[in-house]
Design goal:
It is built from 25 helices and 27 strands. It is of the alpha+beta class and 689 residues long. The longest helix has 23 residues. The structure holds ligand C2E and magnesium ion (MG) (2 copies).
């Protein structure tokens, strides 16, 4: 027993127990007296030697057997050695175990290493003792003894299993960790699948290494196992030698790190990086049966704007829970970022199952979301792409699902679209135009046209709206409807808006310097209104010494006035303070909060042209807007006036200003003066001039 001393000093004799055992062992071992090998019987319960032959007395350096039998070996025995001996005892009882180990004895304090062969030995009173036979010592076979020592004291767990059977040998580390001494290799694995995998590999190549979950004396642990096919040195039968190292801590730390690397922290869904890895795995196995479903929340920005980001987060977490409860166990839910989610179906469910999954998703998501006292309902737009041999690569599938999602949005949101080839063609065309616009913005291939606005009281042009046109090298002049929505969606409007603002302000300054006393209107899109650079640019222009104070009007649409109204009001106040006028464009078509309208510093309401074109049916609505404008002290402009009848009706209703093709189309700057002069010389129906 290395480093753990079994003191050979005699102790108080336990004579009665000894005698009982001794009489018995004497009978059994009469012949052993003559053997040269040291043989002794150790009573584990009482920590006494109960029989020793002459050689054993020599080994223990005892003058005779009686004095050896009197020694109390427990006296200086460490608790580790004592517990190992108790374990041996239970192994003798359970499975008639036999094994050899290198032990270091300390007779009279002098360390003596011997290889001892142990086996169980029942005493007359039925208790299990240990028969010990010294089979060699360090001087005889130093290499063997050292290797045996190493086997004994290493932390690596080494077990020799009978193939399909119990252990034939376990080193102490393995024995300590084993759930029970008889546990077969199959029983050791937590998952039968792992055992099967190991056996198959052993049969194929004779060895296998794996990290697996195993059952041990301290519960379920993770072991790094190396297994080798071999033969039992004693019986020659097939056996498996297993070396194991406990890697639980490492595995848990690694799993945690992997979980964090693969997950989105807010929702617990998989993240973009996982999606990429997973899809490239699918790509490698040339899976052609899967599907990708992309969805995002309709108008998610408005949720954040209206209720704040905390509510936005609640909505996203809720969506994750609802989506997970709608899909099957093996389908994977990914959050790409923001309000964009993806579901990966590795194995596309048949049509009959797929439709109910999507229906369930829509149904679960449409349930109200309640947080504190806030209750909101959301909808999602969905795009689906199935894997096909043509589009087996991840980027293509992702793009197809995206195109389908975009089609859902274009078709009015809150719906599902499956990708089709035609959609792909349309998307390609759009991609091309996006690229063209990008280049045009970089090269500043845009000009402003100007449409006059006439005051019906004076009959004079009092203002002009600047409308942007794209000068396409091949297609000529392109109207804003074709590129403004794309610029809005892609964010290019921020750069284009800056350009228009600069051109417009320059023009307004030029008119002032030319002595032309008219106002200029510039359109500001919702995204541009949110762009940080807008305020800075407006500020910079307003500080120009030639800035035409009160002569530049910014047209915003009603949907800019949704969201954090306090914040919007502050922003509009600041713009107004800088000397700009503010108009609401296309008034009557949006969802602005009418009760708030009076709170904003608004100078002008431009009645949307759809109302003018529907005259006289839309008369009551126009009258209502005229009254509202009067109430809040704003100028009213009727847009899209195309006929004399419309103009006459508006004049009778005392509409202040008009703009439309009936007066003039938008014209390039070099024609504007002429158009203006012509208009100024015309007499209008109710003009007081
Ligand atoms: P909007 O601001 O409401 O401008 C009025 C639109 O109505 C202009 O179309 C104008 O040409 C057209 N219009 C004027 N009178 C009539 C009429 O009598 N009948 C009809 N049918 N249409 C008339 P345009 O120039 O094609 O501009 C369309 C929209 O594009 C604008 O609507 C505005 O929302 C946007 N837009 C134009 N320029 C800019 C710009 O510089 N920046 C931003 N953000 N948007 C712009
Ligand atoms: Mg406008
Ligand atoms: Mg308009």
């Amino acid at each position: 027993m290395r480093n753990e001393k079994i003191d050979i000093q005699a102790a108080v004799p336990l004579l009665s127990a000894m005698r009982c055992s001794k009489a018995d062992t004497d009978g059994n071992f009469a012949f052993a007296r003559r053997l040269r090998a040291a043989i002794w019987v150790y009573d584990i319960d009482n920590s006494r030697i109960v029989y020793a032959n002459v050689s054993a007395c020599d080994l223990w350096q005892a003058p005779d057997e009686v004095s050896l039998l009197q020694r109390d070996l427990a006296k200086d025995m460490s608790s580790t050695v004592a517990s190992r001996l108790r374990q041996y005892q239970s192994d003798f009882v359970a499975r008639d175990a036999m094994f050899n180990e290198m032990w270091t004895l300390y007779p009279k304090g002098k360390p003596t290493s011997v290889m001892v062969f142990f086996s169980g030995f029942r005493l007359a009173d039925g208790r299990m003792a240990m028969l010990c036979e010294a089979v060699g010592n360090a001087e005889d076979e130093p290499e063997n003894l050292r290797s045996a020592e190493a086997l004994l004291h290493t932390d690596v767990m080494i077990t020799l299993y009978e193939k399909n059977g119990p252990p034939l040998y376990m080193n102490p580390a393995a024995r300590n960790a084993a759930a029970d001494a008889q546990q077969s290799i199959a029983e050791k694995f937590t998952h039968p699948f792992d055992y099967k995998k190991m056996i198959e590999a052993l049969e194929a190549s004779g060895e296998h290494r794996m990290v697996s979950s195993v059952s041990t004396s301290t519960g379920q642990r993770w072991y790094d196992l190396s297994a080798k096919m071999c033969s039992d040195a004693v019986t020659g039968k097939p056996a498996i030698l297993v070396t194991a190292v406990d890697v639980s801590e490492l595995k848990i730390a690694r799993d945690k790190a992997r979980y964090l690397a693969d997950r989105d922290l807010l929702t617990g869904c998989y993240n973009r990086s996982y999606l990429h890895q997973h899809m490239s795995r699918l790509e490698q196995c040339k899976s052609e049966r899967g599907a990708l479903l992309c969805f995002d929340v309709d108008h998610f920005k408005q949720i954040n704007d209206r209720f704040g980001h905390e509510m936005g987060d609640v909505v996203l977490k809720d969506i994750a829970v609802r989506a997970r409860s709608s899909i099957r166990e093996n389908d994977k839910l990914v959050r790409l970022g923001g309000d964009e989610f993806v579901i990966i179906f590795d194995d596309t469910p048949p049509e009959t199952e797929f439709a109910p999954i999507v229906e369930r998703l829509l149904e679960h998501i449409s349930q109200p979301i309640i947080h504190d006292s806030t209750r909101t309902c959301i909808t999602v737009s969905i795009g689906v792409a199935t894997f096909s041999p043509k589009a087996a690569d991840f980027t293509a599938i992702m793009r197809e699902a995206d195109i389908a999602l975009y089609a859902s949005k274009q078709a009015g949101r809150n719906q599902v679209t499956f990708f089709s080839e035609e959609m792909g063609v349309a998307a390609l065309a759009r991609q091309n135009i996006e690229t063209e616009i990008k280049i045009a913005v970089e090269q500043r291939n845009f000009v402003l046209h100007f449409q006059p606005r006439v005051d019906l009281q004076t009959g004079k042009v009092v203002s002009a709206e600047a409308l942007v046109r794209w000068q396409h090298p091949e297609r000529g002049m392109i109207m804003p409807d074709e590129f403004i929505p794309i610029c809005e969606e892609t964010g290019m409007i921020e750069d284009l808006g800056q350009m228009v603002l600069a051109l417009g302000c320059e023009q307004a300054i030029a008119w002032q310097q030319e002595g032309l006393d008219i106002q200029l209107s510039l359109n500001i899109s919702p995204r541009q209104f949110d762009d940080q650079r807008l305020m800075k640019s407006l500020q910079a222009f307003s500080k120009d010494m030639n800035f035409p104070h009160g002569k530049i009007e910014l047209e915003i649409t009603e949907n800019v006035l949704i969201g954090d109204l306090g914040h919007i009001e502050t922003k509009l106040e600041a713009i107004s303070q800088m000397g700009y006028r503010i108009a609401i464009d296309d008034f009557g078509t949006g969802y602005s909060n009418l009760s708030y309208i009076s709170e904003f510093p608004l100078n002008c309401l431009k009645i949307d042209q759809s109302f003018i074109s529907q005259l006289p049916k839309s008369g009551p609505i126009i009258s209502l807007i005229l009254t509202l404008a009067k109430q809040i002290g704003a100028t009213v402009v009727a847009e899209g006036v195309e006929t004399g009848d419309q103009l006459a009706w508006l004049s009778r209703q005392n509409c202040e200003q008009v703009q439309g093709y009936h007066l003039s189309r938008p014209v390039p700057i070099d024609q504007f003066r002429m158009v203006m002069n012509q208009l100024n010389s015309v007499t209008y129906p109710s003009s007081k001039n």
